[in-house]
Amino acid sequence: MQSSFADIILPLALKGRLTYSIPEEMQEIVRRGTRVQVQLKDRKIYTGVVARVHNDVPDIKDIRPVMKAYGSDPVINDRQLDFWNWIAAYYMCTEGEVMKAAVPAALFPEGETNVPVVERYRPKKETFVELARRFSDMELNEILDSLRKAPRQSDILTAYLYLTGYTADSEIKALRKSYVLKKSGSAPSHINPLVKKGIFKQLSLEVGRLSYPENKTEQIRDLSNIQAVTYDSIRRIYKEKDIALLHGVTSSGKTEIYIHLIDEQLKKGKQVLYLLPEIALTTQLIIRLQKHFGNITGIYHSRFNDQERAEIWKKVAADDPGSGYRLVLGARSSIFLPFSNLGLVIVDEEHDISYKQHDPSPRYQARDCAIVLAGIHKAKTILGSATPSIESYYNAERGKYGFAELKERYGSIRLPSIILANSREAYRKKLMVSHFTPELLNSIDEALSKGEQIILFQNRRGFSPYIECSDCGWIPSCKQCAVNLTYHKSIGRLVCHYCGYSISVPHKCENCNSSGMVTRGFGTQKIEDEIKIVFPSARVERMDQDTTGSRNSFNRIIKAFEEHRTDILIGTQMISKGLDFENLTVVGILNADNLLHYPDFRAHERSFQLMEQVSGRAGRRQKQGKVVIQTSDPDNRIIRLMLQHDYQNMYRSQIEERRAFNYPPFCRMIRINLKHKSRADLNSFADILGNDLKGMFGKRVLGPEYPLISQIQSWYIKTLLIKIEKEKSLAKAREMIRAALDRLEKEKGAGGLRIGVDVDPY
Question: Which of 224, 362, 376, 706 could form a disulfide with 710, with the two C-beta atoms 3.0–4.6 Å apart?
């Protein structure tokens, strides 16, 4: 019996799926995973995904029919649909929100009923030329003789024969028309007579939008003895467990182990997903992977445009192993690609906060999702880091994950020496030059004199965090958000980093009319300006959110540093991860206190991780590196542990604190954010929800409270935090929270309320 109805997921924040009837002519082609076009309400048309086909008559008076089916081949496979369903359930969002995050919009067009909705993805095509038929050597000589009076035509044919290496026994090859014309120094009009004479024919062929350099593949390098032991250890773990944590110090050669594990899976005909936290990291690594695995290696991240994302999607989904991507290197969103046969998922720098999606929904943790995705495919997972997250190390310690270690740097290079520079004392003794201690300046000067390179880390962009009236203390703040405006000298404006609101720099105080406006603190722009004054002959670059707006900006900055065209690179946390520079010997951390004193239960763990990761960039080849940490609190426990690169004791101190105060991994956390344009209404609704939740969860509910930033884009914000013991059912807790939110949404006036749920908000 044929199915009459389809439950469809649309890329909208709708609770549940929508049911449509399947017209008789579409009965054969509408099935789970196919794309269909449907009408929603009076005017809107969307392309959705069929999640289920059935004969259960829905309790709806007027059920609309599916308008169009895009063929019978599923564009979303069963494993993806199962994965979407898990994400929606676990992270308390809708399947539509997951779909919107997951799929390229070009493949799922939408529009109005009065305008035809057409698929926006168009394969890129180009004109190619090839011989019209197979010619013998004698025939080719005769043709060339006949073209003596048409030298341009003769040049084109000669260039084609040379470039293809054509012989009478070889296959006819098609070459890009533009390439043949360039090599022969000819114009397009010169090729047309050759087509008319039946010597050439022109073809329109699909070409990729994404071009990677075609390097000849190289053999994978042998592992060192220490790496080989670790590799064998991981393979033994995989006989009993599906997840392994690889704890390897910076520059220990974790990537080389990954490459051997990848090779093993590719030889089995499997696909591999290699996750990285930062787009910048893909630049160096893609060249390395393609060197070994060639054009089956693809890359995926948010900087690609919609057409490019659709093309990558199709290449991952391709059945043909020769034309598809079997190894994908990507940032967190690559977990949503249409893998059909995953054998291995690598999560490199697994501790990194960039794996967490905060806004918009789904607010997922890509590392945790990757583990679930691998489980759906019955694949293996490897989590790698020099500074594993407390949760992952705890799971390994308890035996939930297998555990492998690399304790030495590759080639026995020593870990960098760390110098603590007491900035408080330097300021007191008037030894500071701008924001630089004598220890850091001497280290930079010494490195520059030897032709070596330097990285300076400051985890705040802009020129100055704020400007202030020196007479009354007035600070310009955002009109829409409860934050101070950051001074950006390059554009001469004060900017809000939350909503983008900006104003020109005020010359007078709006409070007391004084002209004594001064900058306070420092960001990456200010460091760039001042380092150029102190070292005028040094070539300085900056890598932060302001300088990496375009897709190729990462490549440009990193390539310049690799090629020694930059002496000093200044940046935010994006320079701390995984980058490998041969000539980099000095790393300066300009304000360690800024990291340590952030109001968050993970502040000390993250400070250690960030400082250790930044430090790990130094001295990665034959020279021992040097790290200068500027701090006003050199006796701080975390900084002291950093001096010894002592991850184990950092972990011990943090795990005991977490146990004492009931923080993860000893509990689950769910944060609920409430937003409203009216502060009074927000307070009222927050109290209603708080009381409802406390009636169910008691003292496990913290708040409602205003967060550190209590207003963004004119929306006032309040948060509630719920802690759920590990032994309690998280599914049951989510069910109870959903019921409370449903009751809140039915309150009078709740239409102006925005609710965001963040599961595992850390």
Answer: 706
Which CATH code of 3.40.50.300, 3.90.79.10, 1.10.10.10, 1.10.274.10 fits the domain covering 417-460+536-657? 3.40.50.300
Structure tokens at 193: 């007579």
For 542-552, how does the pLDDT look when each residue is reduced to its tens digit (9 = 90+)?
A: 888 777 777 67
293, 286 in Cβ contact below 8 A?
Answer: no
Tell me how far apart the alpha carbons of residues 725 and 99 are, in angstroms, rounded to a whole number: 31
Lowest-confidence segment of 127-131, 420-424, 435-439, 521-525 by average pLDDT? 521-525
Mean pLDDT comparison of 130-134, 221-225, 652-656, highest-scoring range: 652-656
Hey, what amino acid is at 36?
V
Element (H, E) at 299: strand 297-300
Q: Write down the CATH number for the domain with range 667-759.
A: 3.30.70.600
Q: Residue 560 CA to chain centroid, in angstroms?
A: 23
Q: Domain 5-112 maps to which CATH number in 1.10.287.3610, 3.40.1440.60, 3.40.50.880, 2.70.50.80?
A: 3.40.1440.60
Please name the residue ranges forming H helices in 360-453.
366-376, 390-397, 423-428, 438-449
Interval 575-602: pLDDT, tens: 766 566 778 889 898 888 877 877 788 8
Neighbouring C-beta atoms of residue 413, cutoff 10 Å: 17
Q: pTM for the full model?
A: 0.84
**Tens-place pLDDT, residues 252-265:** 789 999 999 999 99
The two tokens of residue 342 are 């995953």
**719, 671 contact by CB (below 8 A):** yes
What is the token pair recorded at 409?
């740097």
